[in-house]
TrEMBL record:
The lineage of its organism: Eukaryota, Viridiplantae, Streptophyta, Embryophyta, Tracheophyta. One of its GO terms (molecular function) is pyrophosphatase activity. Its cofactor is Mg(2+). The gene is LOC105033912. GO terms for cellular component: cytoplasm; nucleus. This is Nudix hydrolase 16, mitochondrial isoform X2.
Length: 177
């Protein structure tokens, strides 16, 4: 039984949780780290999603991203970077004030430090670690593919280039904005 309770939100945010998996000689002549992202199943159809939700008046968008990742995917980690805002349409957000259901989501990169065995939405959600190409194939919505390539992959590549002088598998969180 899980002691945590899921909260409901007013605004949208998502995170792209990631970790490194060590790859041995089978990956080539030199062992290296493979980056994997975590996705969760959708409750309303096929395809996979990144953890998402709203944020409350008493928390920052970064705090909400951390909380939602814990509630939906059972993970804890560090927010590394704000990747940008991404726009999408949602049937559940269509109303007289927004007939198109246009939504705006803040997207973050989150370096996962811990996977919990029990979490609030465990009975409704399955989590899957995927390589970037696998994740691109599984994304439920095209805008998530854009966020993964244009936001996350570009940020990660730039971060790794900057860290080449140091340990290439080690990155540190950026200050919260």
């Amino acid at each position: 039984m899980c002691d945590l309770v899921a909260r409901t939100g007013r605004h949208q945010q998502r995170c792209i949780p990631f970790k490194y998996r060590k790859c041995d000689e089978s990956c080539g002549s030199k062992p290296k780290n493979i980056i994997e992202v975590l996705m969760i199943n959708s409750q309303s159809g096929p395809g996979l999603l990144f953890p998402k939700g709203g944020w409350e008046n008493d928390e920052t968008v970064e705090e909400a991203a951390v909380r939602e990742a814990l509630e939906e995917a059972g993970i804890r980690g560090d927010i590394m970077e704000f990747l940008g805002f991404y726009y999408f349409k949602s049937k559940s957000h269509q109303d007289e004030f927004c007939p198109d259901g246009l939504c705006k989501a803040a997207m973050f990169a989150m370096h996962v430090k811990e996977e919990l065995g029990s979490w609030p939405e465990q009975s409704m959600r399955q989590r899957r670690w995927l390589t970037i190409p696998e994740a691109l194939e599984q994304c439920r919505h095209p805008w998530m593919q854009v966020a993964l390539i244009e936001g996350f992959s570009k940020w990660h590549a730039n971060t790794m280039m900057s860290a080449e002088e140091g340990d290439p598998g080690t990155i540190s969180p950026s200050p919260a904005r």
